[in-house]
Design a protein that fits this description.
The complex is a heterodimer of chains A (about 100) and B (about 375). Chain A has about 100 residues and is of the alpha+beta class. Chain A is about 20% helix and about 45% strand. In chain A, strands 1-2-3-4-5 form a five-stranded antiparallel beta sheet. In chain A, β1 and β2 form a beta hairpin. Chain A starts with a helix and ends with a helix. The mean pLDDT of chain A is about 85. Chain B has about 375 residues and is mainly beta. Chain B contains three helices and 24 strands. In chain B, the strands form three sheets. A six-stranded mixed β-barrel of chain B has the order 16-23-17-21-20-24. A five-stranded mixed beta barrel of chain B has the order 2-3-4-8-7. A two-stranded antiparallel ribbon of chain B has the order 18-19. In chain B, β12 and β13 form a beta hairpin. The chains are: A alpha+beta (about 100), B mainly beta (about 375). Chains A and B meet through β1, β2, β3, β4 and β5 of A and α1, β1, β2 and β3 of B.
């Protein structure tokens, strides 16, 4: 709950929240390897992929480490996870 | 891809920063995951998949499943695809809506055993007979001419089958209709199999429970102090998708409508092991007693969620399923199963039907269902 609150308090959440499918995260978990909580909100993506806006929040002090658009899709090489670059991100979260 | 792996990769990509791309290579043809590891809940079944194909070609596709998750589907050498009424004549394509049975491998890839594209199934009645386009009553109450093709099977009440000619069907006759298309309700539907009902059946799998041999203190019901007895009902089952439109895997904007909350029992889910029962005590405030349509059967009044143990005598497979909906309306059909039962008394979800070895395109199969009730005085 604290990690979700930390993500929602961030300026970037306020900037993208209108583009999210809803205010509730679709998945939250603690990643011990990264020492972070990962909070994912669903985005409307391309029909052949699943897209999320993700926040990585430090599990030590609940500071926001990273945020961005992630997509999961099947490619010829297997599953492909992308953390989109800024310009792609803008197009994915555009209205 | 399983949840743990998916989280691991999403987390890594997020922390690594913008521009990161990670791949999780699939080992097609790898080991199958054990049933125990894959099973998540009593009535969920990892061997059943329904959804819409969103990308892919050849033998690997991605699909959005009943839970809106992206899944990988692999068509292997042993996979069979039913499409437009034929087996293995055409492959999968983007936007195909499907039901599939198979197994999940170690990478989370669903390896198909059998797969049905845009298949629909509904109980109906003949409104206006015609040899090639009989007008049928749809589940919504509308009527519509339903086209046949040359290979459409018409299974008559005596068990005989004709092809491509519906002229033996009579006005008012009860039917089970199976076919393909995007939606029977908008006319985009072709019948591939029509099973005609008769006004009477034999005593084999007939109207009543086999009595008294089937009423016994059986281990299945445990040693309850209420002297619980096992009652086994013999008959035929159809398959259903929880009253969502006409029933089937095609014709919906997302392919997978949400579990029908309006169903008699509140939450009916095609992707789980569930059963409809024709006689239910409290069907969302409505009456549920469909003991007679083309013929009759005596079945006890049970409640939503009541546990029914079903055994498919032809494949030797069994399940225990909760009652999740009202139906079917009991009717008699030609005895075509291995046991020769002829009263359609049960309706299984597509998931349960295929788990027991049924082919959705066949539409019906013999079934023996046991319930535990107080013993006779």
């Amino acid at each position: 709950v604290r990690a979700v609150k930390a993500a929602k308090r961030s300026p970037i959440y306020r900037r993208v929240r209108r583009r999210l499918r809803g205010p509730a995260p679709c998945d939250v978990w603690r990643d011990d390897d990264q020492r972070a909580y990962i909070v994912l909100f669903p985005l409307d993506g391309e029909p052949d992929s699943q897209s999320f806006f993700g926040f990585a929040v430090s599990s030590d002090d609940y500071q926001l480490w990273s945020a961005g658009v992630l997509s999961l899709a099947l490619s010829a090489d297997g599953w492909r996870v992308r953390h989109h670059a800024q310009e792609e991100k803008e197009s994915l979260i555009a209205p | 891809v399983d949840l743990q792996t998916r989280r691991q990769f999403l987390g890594r990509a997020l922390v690594a920063g913008a521009g990161t791309t990670l791949f999780y290579r699939l080992d097609l043809g790898g080991e199958s995951r054990s049933e125990a590891a894959a099973a998540t809940a009593l009535d969920s079944d990892p061997g059943f998949l329904m959804g819409r194909v969103v990308s892919g070609s050849g033998d690997i596709f991605s699909l959005v499943d009943q839970d809106s998750h992206l899944r990988a589907v692999h068509l292997g050498a042993q996979s069979h695809v039913w499409k437009q009424g034929l087996w293995d004549e055409s492959g999968l394509a983007v936007d195909d809506c499907l039901y599939a049975r198979g197994e999940v491998d170690a990478d989370g890839v669903f390896v198909v055993d059998k797969l049905w594209v845009a298949i629909h199934n509904f109980a109906s009645q003949v409104v206006a007979p015609d040899s090639r386009r009989p007008t049928l009553l749809l589940p919504t109450g509308d009527t519509r001419p339903v086209p046949l093709i040359d290979r459409t099977e018409i299974v008559l009440p005596n068990g005989r089958t004709t092809r491509g000619d519906a002229s033996p069907l009579r006005r008012g006759q009860h039917l089970q209709v199976i076919g393909f298309g995007s939606d029977p309700l908008d006319g985009n539907f072709t019948a591939s199999r029509i099973i005609a009902a008769s006004s009477s059946g034999s005593s084999n799998g007939g109207p009543d429970a086999v009595d008294p041999a089937e009423v016994s203190s059986a281990p299945i019901c445990g040693g309850s102090p209420d002297a619980t007895c096992a009652y086994t009902y013999l008959g035929v089952t159809s398959w259903m998708c929880c009253k969502v439109n006409a029933c089937g895997s095609g014709g919906f904007s997302t392919c997978n409508p949400v579990p029908n909350q309006d169903a008699c029992c509140g939450a009916c889910d095609t992707s789980k092991h569930q059963i409809a029962w024709p006689n239910i005590t409290n069907c969302g405030g409505n009456t549920c007693n469909f003991a007679c349509c083309s013929c009759c059967a005596s079945l006890p009044k049970l409640s939503c969620g009541f546990s029914v143990s079903c055994y498919q005598p032809c494949t030797g497979k069994g399940i225990t399923a909760p009652i999740s909906d009202c139906g079917p309306c009991v009717r008699c059909v030609g005895a075509t199963g291995c046991k020769g039962y002829d009263h359609v008394k049960f309706d299984l979800t597509a998931c349960a039907f295929t788990y027991l070895g049924g082919n959705l395109n066949t539409g019906l199969m013999d079934l023996e269902c046991t319930v535990c009730l107080p013993c006779p005085p």
